[in-house]
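$ ./design --mode recover --in tokens.txt
reading tokens...
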């Protein structure tokens, strides 16, 4: 029988298997064409369950819930052996938002089939369920899992880049850098390897965020690649850290803002919020029109709570835009879910949002009261990287400066990790 790229049996025809493997490779390196490859596999064999799951993953990145549900239903009605049934079962949980159950299912599945890379791609990677679980020390946990499974995947360009990303946030930049560069050498068009390389540079304050290397790599990357906009955000961040806000603004306008970014819906929103807020923290003036546009887009595209990582950013957009109704409605939904123990990360998102909103209103002491206890707990944000989590710390630092709280500022700076530096927060000594 045909096999996938990891040597696992596929219950389908050879032609459908070839299209499926091509789709997985394109999905893994976040390049265009995965949707069409999975569609070709389904056209060749409509009962090929895993091809439908591939299509469901692509639909999820586009925010098309109806297409996700249809694809998962088609997969569940397809032909499957035991491994494929477990694989489909994991994605049915994941794509219906049952993160805790999906994490348990992934752990059991990988223990039984340690070479199932498609499941691992959503288990312990940066975008996987472990990184979205909302637990303190989630990053250390997932790095341990990635290292435990490394012998199963060997010198695989897909696995190496995710292993690099995982260990880059556990203070091993040199080891992570070597892994990411090996992944890029094996597949120069692997967006995830470039992504990992950008994170490693950020963590180690390397050349202002690997600015020149990332800009050169982006010049070779199609704009339709799913991470082109996000990697452009990384490049803009590098310019901001280097004290070049004009260069950062050009990158934002060219590839990051929601109007031009072709990446997944939620990443487009998060990156725009991150950029606009960090520009303000660095001392640049607020653009109210941009914030109002962003808040309107967020309410249209993500009208319901979507997990703490997304929600913190969308709540910030509502607060800064002045849309009190938007902010209060979303916050009330989240608080109700926290009380019912139905929200990942507990009260982290509401507390973070209240602190960020207080700062936006100029209530700096209130901001400090909400944000200071969250330092060291940002894994509870349930997703993202330390590069994104830093908005909590940077806002706290700026609030301490504005409030004249030198004691609190000294305490916060004493807990600051090495890199990135200099910190782009206006008023720091």
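writing sequence...
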């Amino acid at each position: 029988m045909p096999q996938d790229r990891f040597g696992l049996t596929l219950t389908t025809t050879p032609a459908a298997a070839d299209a499926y493997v091509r789709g997985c490779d394109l999905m893994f390196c976040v390049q265009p064409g995965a949707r069409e490859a999975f569609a070709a596999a389904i056209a060749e064999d409509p009962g090929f369950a895993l091809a439908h799951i591939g299509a469901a993953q692509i639909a999820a990145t586009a925010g098309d819930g109806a297409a996700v549900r249809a694809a998962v239903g088609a997969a569940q009605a397809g032909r499957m052996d035991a491994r494929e049934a477990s694989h489909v079962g994991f994605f049915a949980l994941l794509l219906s938002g049952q993160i805790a159950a999906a994490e348990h299912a992934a752990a059991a599945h990988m223990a039984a089939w340690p070479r199932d890379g498609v499941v691992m791609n959503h288990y312990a990677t940066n975008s996987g369920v472990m990184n979205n679980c909302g637990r303190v020390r989630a990053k250390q946990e997932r790095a341990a899992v990635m290292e435990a499974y490394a012998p199963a995947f060997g010198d695989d360009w897909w696995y190496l880049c995710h292993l690099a990303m995982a260990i880059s946030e556990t203070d091993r930049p040199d080891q992570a850098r070597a892994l990411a560069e090996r992944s890029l050498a094996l597949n120069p068009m692997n967006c995830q390897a470039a992504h990992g390389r950008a994170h490693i540079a950020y963590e180690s304050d390397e050349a202002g965020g690997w600015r020149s290397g990332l800009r050169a790599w982006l010049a070779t990357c199609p704009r339709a690649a799913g991470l082109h906009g996000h990697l452009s955000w990384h490049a803009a961040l590098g310019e901001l850290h280097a004290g070049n806000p004009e260069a950062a603004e050009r990158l934002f306008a060219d590839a990051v803002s929601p109007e031009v970014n072709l990446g997944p819906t939620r990443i487009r929103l998060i990156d725009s919020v991150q950029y606009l807020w960090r520009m303000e923290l660095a001392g640049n003036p607020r653009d109210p029109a941009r914030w109002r546009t962003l808040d309107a887009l967020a309410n249209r595209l993500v009208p319901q709570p979507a997990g703490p990582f997304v929600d913190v950013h969308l709540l910030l957009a509502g607060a800064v835009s002045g849309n009190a109704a938007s902010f209060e409605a979303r916050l009330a939904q989240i608080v109700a879910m926290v009380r019912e123990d139905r929200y990942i990360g507990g009260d982290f998102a509401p507390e973070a949002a209240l602190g960020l909103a207080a700062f936006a209103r100029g209530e700096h002491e209130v901001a400090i009261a909400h944000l200071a206890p969250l330092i060291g707990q940002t894994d509870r944000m349930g997703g993202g990287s330390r590069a994104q989590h830093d908005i909590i710390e940077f806002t706290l630092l700026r609030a301490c400066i504005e409030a004249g709280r030198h004691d609190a500022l000294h305490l916060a700076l004493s807990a600051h990790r090495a890199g990135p530096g200099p910190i782009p927060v206006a008023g720091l000594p």
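exit 0
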